[in-house]
Amino acid sequence: MMATRAAAVTTAAPMSRAAGAAGTGGFKYLLIAPAVFVLLAFGLFPFLYAVVVSFQKLSLLDQYTDFQGLLNYARLFRDQRLWNAVLHTLAITAAALPLQLVLGLLLAHHFLDERPLKRVFVALLIIPSVISPMVAGSMWRLMFDDRYGPINQMIGWVLGEHVSILWTIQAAWAYPAIIICDVWEWTPFMFIILLAALANVDREQVDAAAIDGANAWQTFRYVSLPAIWPVMMIALLIRGLDLIRLFDIVWQLTRGGPGSATETISIYMFVRGFQEFETSYTGAMVVVLLLLFTATLVAALRRMEIAR
Amino acid sequence: MKTLRRAGWYLTSTFITIVFLFPVYWMFAVSLKTPQEIFKFPPAWYPADPQLQNFLVLFRDGDVWSVWNSLVIASTSTLIAMVFGTLCAYSIVRFRTGGENLAVWILSQRMLPPIAVVFPIFLLYAKVGWADTYHGLILLYTAFALPYVIWMMRGYLQEIPIELEESALVDGCSRWQVLRHVVIPVARSGLFATAVFAFIFSWNEFLFALVLTRTQVLTYPVQISQYFGAQSTFWAKISAMSVLGTLPVFFAVAAFQRYLVRGISLGAVKG
């Protein structure tokens, strides 16, 4: 058994080296050509086009294609509505991400041990995360309706009096509504990833810690947490970036309203680009956003185990 | 004491599941209610007289075309992405093409904000007349699915022992034959799982479709968004269309449960 595995390891390296050198040089590039072509055509080319547009002056009223310098970029700094949108997005992320993580961890801990029917519970709990965010937003819009939705009714039972909270209409309630919807949809995502990671933690180490007198929290903190750390970081990265680019559920729940009170970065850019036709200004926002995302991503992914 | 704790576990588990599934239940319940029942106050907790009227209306008014559009666009783009992506992944795994840089660049493409990707594409499509066309959306969704397919297939292909391919090469197979007759059959379950999840992501996507469709190739999420109006909100249609859009996802995920964790964690957890 050991011998065959060792043989596999020793033959693997020469083969790939030989493959790269002898006669397959063209073959390997032929294989990646179609995919790389599509990715460049839909990734890099539009980006360059956005750069060009961002140096022009195109809007509903103006059609100047002359070079305008950094006019549109300078405007970014003066745009209060943009900074509000950044603030809204960060606020939602700061509330929703830790909630999803903690709830996901608690659920994973609860469902860690093997029991009859455990798999059924886990399978059912996954459902919110596979539904389209669009459908999730619609569902919660119906749930939150002040008159015909069940949420206000249930709160009414608890308080013992009739309530009619305008969840998706009043700014103060719209944020909890958005956060509840996002936490509902993505806690299961955190849950099943962390459950799988926790299940892979060495049981012997956990038991040994318990014998040494560590309590449940200490065992988690010093044994389980370091073991699941890499996976947890990737889950946080995926969800964090999803939240920064949040669009669908906010669009469905509030359309960024009332006014622009719940406008996220994505919604603000949609409004500028596709409703007010501020083409060049939106182009500048696109360029900045793509550069920031790409820099963050490449730096983060290189440090994570996922790229190995 | 032990029985009590076990009962407590089942009670808590059931409670958690009910809390998480209630909105889904509500969507199904509303879709089966009569129009009068939907707008009853206080709300009816279950459809007293379940009927399929709301679904029939979708067929009568032709709204189900959007589900058909979604199906065509998501499946065609998934198919193209699977072919291109698997070839690319194979090259990256076997020949280390592009090194770590190419792999990281491809994965980073997956996580870019859709609004920033679609805005310049909208401008370009408007110029060449590709907005609101099948091929325009299919190509964009292909590009959207590609990084995911490459990344996932890279993981599955890495698990194929290299001796299998070597012995086939020794037996005189060409590189293409090795790929077709050795690699693809061995990676079949990974291929199916990747295709299913790539399909679901395209099926569920909203923003690209919202920007690039008008009337001809409306997908089902865009159709749902149009039911929310300033004057009136079409609850019956929203819930029925949501159910239609959600059922295929349920079946797909149930069939590919085993691959789910790996699929949504981008391979970070090999389930």
Describe the fold and architecture:
The complex is a heterodimer of chains A (308) and B (271). Chain A has 308 residues and is mainly α. Chain A has a single domain (76-307), classed as Orthogonal Bundle (MetI-like fold), CATH 1.10.3720. Chain A is built from 13 helices and 2 strands; from the N terminus they run ααββααααααααααα. Chain A has helices spanning 2-21, 25-54, 71-78, 80-110, 118-130, 133-144, 150-159, 171-199, 203-211, 216-244, 248-253, 265-275, 279-303; strands at residues 57-58, 63-64. Chain A has a two-stranded antiparallel sheet with strand order 1-2. In chain A, helix 5 packs across helix 8. The longest helix of chain A has 31 residues, at 80-110. The model of chain A is unreliable at 1-22 (pLDDT under 50). With 271 residues, chain B is mostly helical. Chain B folds into 2 domains: 2-51, no CATH class; 62-264, MetI-like fold. Helix content of chain B is 76%, strand content 0%. Chain B contains 14 helices and no strands. Chain B has helices at 2-32, 35-38, 53-60, 65-95, 99-110, 114-128, 134-158, 162-170, 175-186, 188-204, 207-212, 220-226, 235-255, 257-264. In chain B, helix 5 (99-110) crosses helix 7. The two termini of chain B are 34 Å apart. The model of chain B has no long low-confidence stretch (mean pLDDT 91). The interface between A and B is large, with 102 and 101 residues.
Q: Any idea how many domains of chain B? A: 2
> What's the name of the CATH homologous superfamily of chain A?
MetI-like
DSSP strand content of chain A = under 5%
Query: What is the architecture of chain A at the second tier of CATH?
Result: Orthogonal Bundle
As a whole number of angstroms, the C-alpha radius of gyration of chain B is 23 Å
Brief sketch in words of this structure:
The complex is a heterodimer of chains A (308) and B (271). Helix content of chain A is 76%, strand content 1%.
